[in-house]
Amino acid sequence: MTNDTHPRNPRMLSVDALRAAITAGEIDTVIVAFTDMQGRLQGKYLHADYFLEHALPHGVEGCNYLLAVDTEMNTVDGYAISSWESGYGDMVFDLDLDTIRWVPWLERTVMLQCDLTLTDGSPVPMSPRSMLKAQVDKAAAQGWKAVAGTELEFVVYRDSYEQAWSKDYRDLTPGNQYNVDYSVMGSGRVEPLLRRIRGDMYAAGMVVESAKGECNFGQHEIGFLFDDVMTTADNHSVYKTGTKMIASEMGNSITFMAKPNDREGSSCHIHLSLRGLDDSTVFWDGQGKGKRSKLYDQFIAGVLRTMRELTLFYAPNINSYKRFALGSFAPTAVAWGLDNRSCSVRLVGSGASARLENRLPGGDANPYLALAAMMAGGLYGIEHELKLPPMTEGNAYTSDAVHVPRTLREARELFAESDIAREVFGAEVVDHYVNYADVEIEAFDAAVTDWELRRGFERL
User: Fold this and answer.
1) Residue 112 belongs to what domain range?
2) Are 265 and 322 in contact (CB under 8 A)?
3) Residue 113 is part of a domain; what is its CATH number?
């Protein structure tokens, strides 16, 4: 996308406004970034004049190993896209000029987000942004667009990241030392940090709603207004990185791990609905006391039908699965219900606000992958006219509904064997992310944990 004059909203920059700000000396650094498999922003900090003279007209390149590394940035075997045998070639950071935003937590800096293409101009199919874009295009071909909001929880610690590292992440001091769910006083205890995050994210082009405390000690959530799915995913990635950088500057640390300790995990609930390309309502029939449309029911059915097979994209890490516990507000049952938080899919709203909330993803989810999975499942349900199974009433934790995968290994097997995953994403993408799971599982299986030492050092 190359829109020179009309940014996404007035707080973001057009190319003309960026050029003027650089010329005036208001900007000296331009970050070009993409979101990798792990959901992290990766890229380069460019001098602003170089960006105008060279990067803007000719582009930026980076090594294709960036989509073939583990969380520690180790190059690992098994990826077709990148290896010593193929020479670790380059891929192109294709600048999305609709995404130019201020980075208020860095001095005189702006950021652009990128698609990834091969040097011949073709998209990199396993790039998370490419995967979501493919689902957006598929929906558009049917006359629909998807809008979504992600509710992302995190835990605040008084320790800096350096202190946390030196302590091996043990005995950290949380921002709150008791449950502050909805507590005005509890949020107020960390309000200097929350206020800074809200203000900087607004200046970076996001529509900030509110902040609230959560259940775990030091756990909070900052909410943002829904938008089209690509904008939501882009904002999510910037927010997650920026929040950590702001916390670090203030001597704190923040984690988005799904389960950082034995208390409540951190979620990333995703609210999503389809609309017509003209913004018309397609998930509801009639006004006032109308009802869900057939299209809506088929979409829900598709999300449920594919949930276990695509859980790898909702819960991509070993730690993700520690969150799925009975009575934890994290789902264990593949089930749907009306405003029922014990289900993995919760239906809320009516009319134009009708939407489904996917409660499966945790704070560690890659937003592009999770949204791509949700859209792919829903569109599959519409295409195959799937029938919505009976609604779960009461406690889904104790129902006879099928269980979500309990481990990354189980999710990996379901994904690898899924004909639907290969149909909606392609075999190349499936093989790539199966290898991603294999790398994580192998690394975890080789690790000696604190639990093993405490349990067996003396007593076994």
Assistant:
1) 15-122
2) yes
3) 3.10.20.70
pLDDT given for residue 1 in this prediction: 41
pTM of the model: 0.96
Please tell me whether residues 380 and 255 are part of one structural domain: yes
DSSP structure string for 261-305: SSS---BEEEEEEEEETTS-B-SEESSSS-EE-HHHHHHHHHHHH
**Which is nearest to 190 in space by CA: 202, 177, 200, 201?**
177
Q: Strand 345-348 relative to strand 336-338: parallel, antiparallel, unpaired?
A: parallel
Cβ neighbour number for residue 247 with a 10 Å cutoff: 24
pLDDT tens for residues 65-92?
A: 999 999 999 999 999 988 777 888 899 9
- pLDDT for residue 135 is more than 60: yes
Tokens of 19: 């050029």
Asked, for residue 130, whether it belongs to a domain, the answer is no
Q: Please give the C-alpha separations between residue 295 and each of 146, 152, 274, 291, 390, in angstroms, as whole numbers.
A: 13, 28, 9, 11, 16
**Count of domains observed in the chain:** 2
Residue (of 398, 390, 409, 270) closest to 333 by Cα position: 398
Identify whether residues 171 and 31 lie together within a single domain: no
Residue 145 banded pLDDT, cuts 50, 70, 90: very high
Give pLDDT tens digits for 249-276. Answer: 999 999 999 999 999 999 999 999 999 9
Measured CA to CA, the distance from residue 415 to residue 112 in angstroms comes to 32
- Which are the contacts of 289, defined by CB distance < 8 A and separation ≥ 6? none
Buried b (16+ CB within 10 A) or exposed e, 92-122: bbbbbbbbbbbbbbbeebbbbbbbbbeeeee
Q: How many CB atoms lie within 10 A of CB 29?
A: 17
φ, ψ for residue 74, nearest 5 deg: -80, 135
| Residues 51 and 192 reside in one and the same domain | no
Q: Are residues 274 and 319 in the same domain?
A: yes
Q: Which two tokens stand for residue 324?
A: 């799925």
Closest CA to 314 of 388, 228, 227, 404: 404
- Record the tokens describing residue 119, joined without a space: 């040097």
Q: Has residue 5 been placed in a domain?
A: no
